[in-house]
Write a structure and sequence with these properties.
With 890 residues, the chain is of the alpha/beta class. Helix content is 47%, strand content 17%. It is rod-shaped, with a radius of gyration of 54 Å.
Length: 890
């Protein structure tokens, strides 16, 4: 068996549903005992039984004309179907059309009253029918070409005769037609005061054929004096195959006669159409914990009330439900709720809930304190583990004790209400789109900041080199560089002349020694004297002597030449000194007219020329960096537009939906509206944490003020894009600024309650008392149809009159469309909302358990005594109140 089916089976075994459900009923049908019945075959009982099973009727009443159905036939049908089958009679009742004029309807008008008898009562139905004939003046009258038997006693008399019979009386054939006689209808006289009195005091219900007729008896129409009366439709079948073709529906825990009669007496338990289930609801829950140990409970898809003395465990179940569904907990109560959960579940505690989602899926959700992830199991045993409750796709409101009034101080709670009204999916989609764009802004802002810093650095370098280049141009235009080069060349030449003279003088001093040293170490005497080689050596000696003679001559010539050259150099140096002095004076004069920067530039012009040679390359790099910055700025401007467009669309959606929803709150003297785009609380937190970023953000907002921060930011980007050098750019100066661009403004929900007269009588929820806050907020919760509503003691701070006159009627009207659960100590809230399931909790201080559960169907229901004891203080307290109020015996 699959996990979901296994849990369902265990839930059925351990917590068999004991709440009210809708049962199909058909209270006007005939058998062959009626003269106009169209089938009389021997298989009558089989065919009727099969038809009852096929149409899934829980209750069938047979009402033959002026006589009872055969008891043996009814018993056979009961045995074959196991359903509640009731014997009844359709009586002709002659009336004088009450206060209608004679020309309006025939004075021989008659109508039908259906009388149903309790199958378990004594005396028998035969006895009561005979008693009616005996005391209500049965007679025969002519109706067209027919003679009809009927009773002509007042309805009061018929009611008195049946007072002890525990019978049901239904005025039949309340048609929507003006031809009263032909249709046997009393529709023309449904607003007659006499008829309305009978309807209020004597009839259990009214049979109609159209819902438009039933609408007059909803308690809100002046035509029927505000009468709220159960209206049913029936098949009025005269053959087996027509049985059950037009049933009605009634809420009962078990299809018994007592619950049927009780239900007919309470119009809100009756429906002409098959009631649908809410789109989403919680089927059942299992809590395995420390305080609630192995607790199983099946819920009604409609209204559930948890009662018990303080500390009995009802709030523990509510908190377990909030835990398994991941419903929001106000920050102010988070610690208290966690402590409570730890006490309920203990270290190894786990909560399992079976839910039905809007997509039709049955999903089992499991969650434990040890591992707070959500484990989802689907019908096909597929499992998912989720960390976020939004991923459950199961919206639910679970509000703990006193959390309703916290909407006055907690903006997050109000926003939750607002977005539920507006459509969470649409709001979430727009919010996520805005958040994605804001996150992209933060990332691109950082990239743009780096690119802008690189651009600024390159621009500064280019500007400096351009300035140097311009200075060089000015020096060149003034021939200062040329004269600077001449001065330098003259200085070098002057020094070279003096160095040459010094070298010449050194050479003159060492010429003789230099030439003498050419043949240093040569001894001429080594070639003199007799020898066999004297002739050869003599010739060599002549060569040596020639060389020595040339050296001596050269030495003298060089010395003479050096003396002459030195004299000339000394003369030229003197003249050069005079020329240099004149040039130097001119140079100094020109130099004195320059600025210090020009003089420094003149001194370093060669180095500058080398640097400025790189200027074209730097300009290309700067232009590339500028294009990169502009690309980032254009993207940032586009992202800012995306953010603001999403925020505007979200606000427009909220305003439209909240305004429509506000119209539904008018009967409660409550109105709601959207307060557009307020700074988020995160701004305040960031202002304290990131002071540099806060200063920059404040400066941006003051320079480019607009209704939205991202519009101001967009203007800042646009301003910078228009002029990268002088536009507004301080937001690039500190990385903390990025924290502020990733958050944005959000709307708030204004809730107002009318506490005085006129428009001036409305007060905002923040200006109200605790009781007034609850009075203002609770209708907002009641009228929302998105997911189950679970509230702990909603009556706190609400007065009983408001509960009885405003809250309970709304719950009665709306609970068919939305599952509601609440804990309560208030009898008005529990009894007047007619919960399909009431659960009583008990505790010994260490453990809590379910003492009793069921539907408060009749005074004899098992849950009734618990409701009386816990909510009303017991029968004695109720009796004393009745006496003091003068209601005893009423």
């Amino acid at each position: 068996m699959k996990r979901v089916a296994e849990f369902e089976a265990e839930l059925q075994r351990r917590a068999k549903p004991r709440f009210a459900t809708w049962h199909a009923i058909d209270l006007h049908n005939h058998t062959p005992a009626s003269d106009d019945y169209e089938y009389r075959g021997p298989d009558m009982a089989d065919r009727l039984a099969e038809r009852i099973r096929t149409t899934n009727l829980s209750v069938v009443m047979f009402t033959d004309h002026n006589q009872l159905p055969d008891s043996a036939l009814i018993q056979q049908i009961t045995d074959k179907t196991g359903r509640l089958v009731i014997r009844g009679v359709e009586l002709n009742v002659f009336v004088d059309a009450w206060s209608k004029p004679a020309g309006k309807v025939d004075k021989s008008l008659f109508f039908h009253v259906l009388v149903g008898f309790d199958p378990c009562t004594t005396p028998s139905p035969e006895y009561w029918l005979e008693d009616i004939r005996r005391h209500c003046r049965e007679e025969k009258r002519q109706a067209g070409d027919k003679e009809l038997w009927g009773i002509c006693a007042p309805i009061d008399q018929l009611h008195n005769v049946l007072r002890d019979a525990n019978a049901i009386l239904i005025a039949a054939h309340l048609h929507s037609t003006h031809d009263a006689f032909r249709s046997r209808s009393i529709d023309d006289i449904y607003d007659d005061p006499a008829f309305l009195r009978h309807a209020k005091e004597h009839f259990t219900g009214l049979e109609v054929t159209k819902e438009s007729t039933a609408a007059f008896f909803d308690g809100k129409h002046s035509e029927t004096q505000g009468l709220h009366k159960a209206c049913i439709r029936s098949s009025d079948s005269h053959e087996p195959d027509k049985l059950g073709w037009r049933p009605s529906y009634l809420q009962m825990q078990e299809p018994t006669y007592e619950q049927l009669k009780s239900g007919l007496e309470l119009p809100f338990r009756v429906s002409l159409q098959p009631p649908s289930l809410p789109a989403t609801y919680i089927t059942g829950i299992h809590v395995h914990g420390q305080f609630l140990n192995d607790l199983w409970l099946s819920f009604s898809p409609y209204c559930n009330a948890l009662i018990g003395v303080k500390g009995s465990g009802k709030t523990s179940l509510l908190e377990s439900m909030r835990f398994v569904l991941g419903a929001d907990v106000p920050q102010t109560r988070a610690q208290a709720v966690n402590e409570h959960l730890n006490a309920i579940l203990g270290p190894g505690g786990k909560v399992t809930a079976l839910i039905k989602r809007a997509d039709g899926a049955k999903v089992l959700i499991e969650r434990s304190l040890a591992d707070k992830t959500f484990v989802l199991t689907f019908d096909d045993d597929r499992q998912e583990r989720l960390s976020r409750p939004e991923s459950l796709h199961f919206p639910a409101y679970v509000l703990g004790w006193h959390e309703i009034e916290q909407a006055a101080t907690d903006i997050n709670i109000r926003r939750l209400y607002m977005d539920t009204i507006s459509g969470k999916e649409q709001v979430r989609a727009l919010t996520e789109k805005a958040e994605a764009a804001a996150a992209a802004i933060r990332n691109d802002h950082e990239r743009a900041s780096s690119a802008y810093a690189a651009f600024r650095n390159l621009e500064q370098q280019v500007a400096r080199l351009k300035e140097l280049h311009q200075g060089l141009k000015e020096l060149t235009d003034a021939n200062l560089i040329e004269i600077r080069d001449q001065y330098q060349a003259a200085t070098e030449h002057r020094g070279a002349l003096r160095a040459t003279l010094a070298r010449f003088r050194t050479a003159r001093q060492g010429a003789k020694e230099h030439f003498g040293g050419l043949l240093s170490g040569f001894d001429r005497r080594s070639l003199e004297g007799p020898s066999p080689l004297s002739q050869t050596v003599g010739a060599a000696l002549n060569v040596v002597d020639g060389v020595l003679s040339s050296i001596d001559a050269g030495s003298s010539s060089v010395e003479a030449k050096l003396d002459e050259s030195i004299a000339i150099l000394e003369q030229q140096i003197g003249k050069a000194d005079q020329d240099f002095q004149a040039f130097s004076e001119e140079y100094s004069r020109r130099l004195s007219g320059l600025t210090r920067e020009q003089r420094e530039l003149l001194e370093s012009h060669r180095k500058v020329m080398e640097e400025t040679a790189n200027l074209p390359t730097l300009e290309r790099e700067r232009d590339k960096a500028m294009q990169e910055v502009e690309r980032h700025l254009r993207k940032l401007i586009e992202l800012c537009t995306q953010v603001t467009d999403c925020l505007d669309q979200r606000s427009a959606l909220r305003r439209e939906m909240v305004q429509k929803f506000s119209d539904q709150l008018a009967p409660f003297d409550v109105r709601i509206s959207v307060v557009g785009l307020q700074p988020p609380q995160q701004f305040q937190e960031y202002n304290q944490r990131y002071t540099h970023g806060a200063r920059l953000w404040s400066d941006l907002r003051s320079r480019h003020s607009d209704r939205l921060g991202h519009l101001s930011l967009k203007k800042g980007y646009e301003n910078l894009l228009s002029n990268l050098l002088s536009g507004y750019f301080p937001f690039f100066e500190h990385s903390e600024f990025g924290f502020f661009v990733s958050i944005f403004e959000d709307d708030d929900l204004q809730i107002e309650l009318k506490v005085g007269k006129g428009e001036q009588g409305f007060r905002g929820i923040g200006q109200l008392s605790a009781g007034q806050r609850c009075t203002g907020v609770f209708p907002v919760l009641l009228k929302q149809q998105a997911g189950p509503l679970v509230v702990d003691q909603p009556e706190d701070n609400l007065d009983n009159r408001h509960i009885a006159s405003s809250i309970s009627p709304v719950l009665l009207d709306d609970k068919r469309a939305r599952q509601v659960m609440f804990t309560s100590h208030n009898a008005n809230l529990v009894v007047l909302t007619d919960p399909e399931l009431i659960v009583t909790f008990e505790s010994d201080g260490s453990n809590g358990w379910i003492e009793e559960q069921g539907f408060l169907a009749t005074p004899q229901s098992a849950i009734t005594k618990h409701v009386v004891q816990i909510l009303d203080g017991g029968e004695r307290a109720l009796e004393l109140r009745q006496r003091k109020y003068g209601l005893a015996g009423s």
